[in-house]
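[job 4417] fold queue: 2 targets
>>> target A
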Amino acid sequence: MKNEKVLLLNELLIDKKNIAIIPHYNPDGDAIGSCLGLMHMLNKFGHNTKIISPNSVPSFLCWTPGFNEILFFDQNEKHCCEAIANAELIFTLDFNDLNRTGEMVQFINNADAKIILIDHHQNPKDYANLIFSDPNISSTCELLYEIFLRLGFEKKIDKTISTCIYLGMMTDTGSFKFPSVTSRTHDIVSNLISMGIKTSCIHNKVYNNSSESKIKILGRALENLNIISEFKTAYMFLEKKDLESLNYQKGDSEGIVNYGLSLSGVNFSTIFIEDFNDEKKIKISFRSIGEFSCDNFARKHFNGGGHKNAAGGKDHGSIFEVINKFKKILTNYKTDLSK
């Protein structure tokens, strides 16, 4: 992290300002944790801070401290547009392409505010005035913590902020088991725990608070599990009719793709999900073990991207057309998937 960037950010924050904080569409734990952690920190310095989310979040994140202060664009477009227009600074967290904000992108582009990007995904787009980007860091929350330290805010990090940061670090590392976790990650966790956070409580609220529909959706996905041994690959799928019959709720499919990697001999796992409103729109999640790059695969073939071992993509057509396309593409990666 270059010192001149930290100095520039510090200068921007010296005077009290109207600030908008924006996560990506369909925000996850890292997006919500980093946005709320930043909001609580900026509020300590007297800034007028608003989090504006493109849409709602899964119920298992609604307990996060400060959640009730989030504005949702899909529920109150007028209020959100006013907040963006009045902002002097806009922070975009946990994404690096403004298209990830959906319909909000046009209002952000028209804003007079300076934009600060804080993110850990690869290949950031050049839309921000100030960019803090490091794909080698496990989560945006971990990067945010490091920025706080460089700004000299360490003594301002309290239990509330620590809870938000831990949430993002925990969820984006698969409870600290992904390869992106380093000794520094655990150092930070130790510091957060020293602030009095309840790690087991946070874990239970996220992972052990499932609805009936979520468990049934998991069951249906596992029923639709297929293994392609030749390519050490597993894939699952969920059709729109599955989602409807099982009373799908936002967030119910979160994490299901990881189950494929629990199979012996599988290095690459994928799930295909028909959009609830448009069955010709297919959402895809990719996960891998080892050196196979989900990010490269998603970018090249499925209009997506993310991290080396975790990425997302999308395609159009029937779900089985997209699955067949995926299977044909796999034939070009036999060597890579065998490593």
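>>> target B
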Amino acid sequence: MSESIIQIQHLTKTFGEGDTAVHALEDINLDIKQGEIFGIIGLSGAGKSTLVRCINLLERPTSGTVIVDGKEMTALSEKELRLARRDVTMIFQSFNLLMQRTCLKNVCFPMELCGIPAAQAKKRAVELLEIVGLRDKADAYPSQLSGGQKQRVAIARALATDPKVLLCDEATSALDPTTTASILALLKDLNAKLGVTVVVITHQMSVIEEICSRVAILDGGVVAEQGDVEDIFSHPSTDAARRLVYPGGVSVAQYPAGTHAVRVAFNGGTAYQPLIASLAIDLGVKVNILGADTRNIDGKAFGTMLLGLPDDPNEAAKALSYIRSQPNVSAEEVEYHG
């Protein structure tokens, strides 16, 4: 595993004092590796945006430490912090482009602030627009661009100082699904080609499963669960994780009292097994699909399926035994009594 580039230790952030104090983050501990794409996910109000702003000290933690590339950000002077932020840049949901500047001049802007000569900044900006696929939009203004194009310009601008970390705060939330997919593909490509560490803050599990290798789930200002994306999807161990992984909440409670069923969990098999067909062919047992919430991650199956079992106890027992014998599958009997 690569060395850590971001270490967050016992971070707490409180807004206000006394009875009106709001505890946005409590005792956050995260270790993000150099060169990975790390996801931070949670529902609205979970503390995601506050956490990402604490990483580059746009918000100063109430307590705890943030170490980025060996520098303890909380101990830096204002001048040192300005220099350190060149290595930790952000892209936002609202793009934050300067509307009176062309795309080229938007990308040049952070280099101007760093004192880079105009000719050198322009050359680098053209290169970055080429990288994000917008070389032909150099002289266009943000008002002439689509949402996806605006975000590509914002990404090019964020890369202008050759950062080591790219923070993406709900960067695709304002985009349609097709445009979101193209922006995620771009981030994945930049991560591979440039080696930049990407931290993705989102409320969308589809974003996490698309590009992240590891994820931390925030719930009420604390880290409810963290680990490899594949492990979280196959065995979500907290209610917060289950709400995000299986928002449909496949449940037997929506069916008539007395319904006898089995909840099947797919735990990362290499392909979806034709489980229902196999039961019918191999055992002659027929089951009903009552509900399903499944997905494919890197060619592996994850999720749950609720199957109605036969009324005959022997047939039901045969079906349950057969399901439990399958690889990368676990099964739990459930019955709704009303």
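[job 4417] complete. Note on B: The mean pLDDT is 85.
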